[in-house]
Amino acid sequence: MHVLREQTGNEMLGDLLKSCPPVVELQAMLRTIEIARGDVLEKVYFRKPTICNAIHDGHKRELTDSVLRDSQTVKISDFLDKSKELILQIEHLHICQAFLDRMLPRPGELPADAGWVRKGLHSLWTRQRSEFVTNVVEHSGRRESMWGKNKGWVRHWLYIGMINVVVVAFYVPPDHPGYTGPMSWPAWCAYHFLAWCLLFDCITWHLRVVLSLRVSPARVKPKKAKQKHSFRKTLEKKVVSYASRIATSLLSPNPMCGTWRTIVCVLGIIYSPLLFPLHLMVIIGYYSTLRFVLRAISTNISTLLSTGLLAGIIIYFFGIVGQVAFPEDFMDSDGTVLCSSIGECTVLAATLGVRSG
Known about the structure:
Blueprint: H1 2-8, H2 11-19, H3 23-30, E1 32-37, E2 40-45, H4 57-66, H5 72-103, H6 116-141, H7 146-171, H8 185-211, H9 228-250, H10 259-268, H11 275-286, H12 288-325, H13 342-356
Helix pairs in contact: 4-12, 5-6, 6-9, 7-8, 8-9, 8-10, 11-12, 12-13
């Protein structure tokens, strides 16, 4: 319309442009979609994030994997709520990142003739600054309670503890030196499970540092004798990078990856039989598809357990009524009483009902 007004010189177009709302109101109008449903006109507001490029595939995958799928209504509402939280969190992290970039400026580029000591210190400082900024931003982005942050650890703790109790109950006889009595099982399981969790967290952290190297120094081989000098430089560069990454991991502010915790974990894992179940939990926690399957199974298992509990209560009351009102049904053909307590009669009623069914 501006171009037409300039070409034609029509003042009516100028008056029309002046009567239009400002850009902000136009943007607000464009973000509103009106849907006519019968005689009712509904307005659906789609909030457009200011940082669209910050939402990558990892965020989308994590969002879709964490959506509750109990029903279609719950899935849609939970998806919309978590999408809004994701947009707010990304904008908040972007603000924190920009603030920390202003407070902690990035180190400048090194000259070409810088020594290997200066390069190593520069690389270490760069990685420490980047990791500090990342940890501060991630910590500031968490708005959940302490229980919300540690709920996954507590749940895994309970799962592995139950597995360990079963292992000890079935594979450690009472006369074995490792048998310490049923009262000390929870403390024993908790101690060893915590030791394994800390150790695996430290190991995965250090392995991630080692595997982050694109090319290992041992794989760099000179093709010709005249390239020996460049090979030495490449090897020196990789060694400096490797040392800086190891130093960064050892000096990391992450409280779960301290070197002293690694030593404590090594001292506590000798008598623990938790290697297989913890490997299983690590694999499940790494793959989003397995997490989704585990969540679905957990939902179905909770429903089955609730149904089983209700059936047990019903059978228990039926056992009481049957023992009181129909005592002859709990005797065999010879007149021998098949059960002498409510618990035994409940088990008998359940087994007889299953067999009859």
